Amino acid sequence: MKLYTSRGVANGRKVRAVASHLRLKLDLIWLDYFTGDVFSDAFARLNPTLRLPVLDDDGFLLWESTAIIQYLCGKVPGNDLYPEDPRVRADINRWLSWDLAHYNQHYSLLSLESVVKPKLLGLPNDEQAIRWAIPHLHANAAILDAHLSGRRYMVGDRISLADYAIGASEFFQHRLPFDWSGYPNINAFYDLMRAEPHLASTAVEPEEMGRRPEGARPFMEQSDPSSAARRFDHSAA
């Protein structure tokens, strides 16, 4: 299976961590935000939304990282990340859905506008979007912190897809203009996930984020760096 991704991208990290946990081998194809790979026509043919990651399983192209990690679990019957018990799976699905619809929506927007655009891509940020995202993130952080009270993991007493989905964004936590001091359980959870071996193996230094690893074959032989500024959207979050 091939995975088209970029270093440091949270959604790519969660797919790689889940695959590692399941002992599934992925052939990683690195895209570089700074040379315009993600905004190219070549990538648009793989994913019209221009978002990473994309899985290619013998010609079956699958995008949306949550769908990808559920698909990977389907390849390993009896795995402990996505148990077949209906109630346990429903609970995991509940938090995966909540993350997509609420928590990650505001977390990723704040990451994009306060970190990715100004510090990584050199693009102007949207101060109005930042002001909008912060109170919404506080509201959802309160829900998450209350849920994590007295527990280490999102569902039950062991790691699941829900932990990888929410924990994969740990890179941005202390880089956001957001006060986490009122959420001790979230802080403990992110610390736990930073040390989790499969997720930790996907971590990068800030200067490596979004860049193709040295020696990796270019996604496009000829790329257009200016396309990043022309076509950049929320795909980096």
Relevant terms:
alpha+beta, EC 2.5.1.18, Glutaredoxin, 48% helix, Glutathione S-transferase Yfyf (Class Pi), Chain A, domain 2, Thioredoxin-like_sf, glutathione transferase activity, Glutathione_S-Trfase, 4-stranded mixed beta sheet, Glutathione S-transferase, 9 helices
Kindly describe this structure:
The structure is a single chain. With 237 residues, the protein is of the alpha+beta class. It has two domains: 2-79 and 203-236, Glutaredoxin (3-Layer(aba) Sandwich), CATH 3.40.30; 86-200, Glutathione S-transferase Yfyf (Class Pi), Chain A, domain 2 (Up-down Bundle), CATH 1.20.1050.10. The protein contains nine helices and four strands; from the N terminus they run E-H-E-H-E-E-H-H-H-H-H-H-H. It has helices spanning 10-22, 41-44, 65-74, 86-121, 127-148, 161-167, 184-194, 197-200, 226-231; strands at 2-5, 27-30, 54-57, 60-63. The longest helix has 36 residues, at 86-121.
Outline type: globular
Helix content: 40-55%
Class by alpha and beta content? alpha+beta
**Which regions contain 5 or more consecutive residues with pLDDT less than 50?**
222-237
Mean pLDDT: 92
Q: Which radius of gyration do the C-alpha atoms yield?
A: 17 Å
**CATH class term of the largest domain:** Mainly Alpha
What fraction of the residues are assigned to beta strands by DSSP?
5-15%
What order do the strands of the largest sheet run in, or round the barrel if closed?
Answer: 2-1-3-4
Count of beta strands? 4
Terminus-to-terminus distance: 24 Å
Number of helical regions: 9
The CATH topology annotation of the largest domain reads as Glutathione S-transferase Yfyf (Class Pi), Chain A, domain 2
Q: What is the domain total for the residues? A: 2
Can you summarize the main beta sheet? 4 strands, mixed
* Reported CATH architecture of the largest domain: Up-down Bundle
Order of H and E elements: EHEHEEHHHHHHH
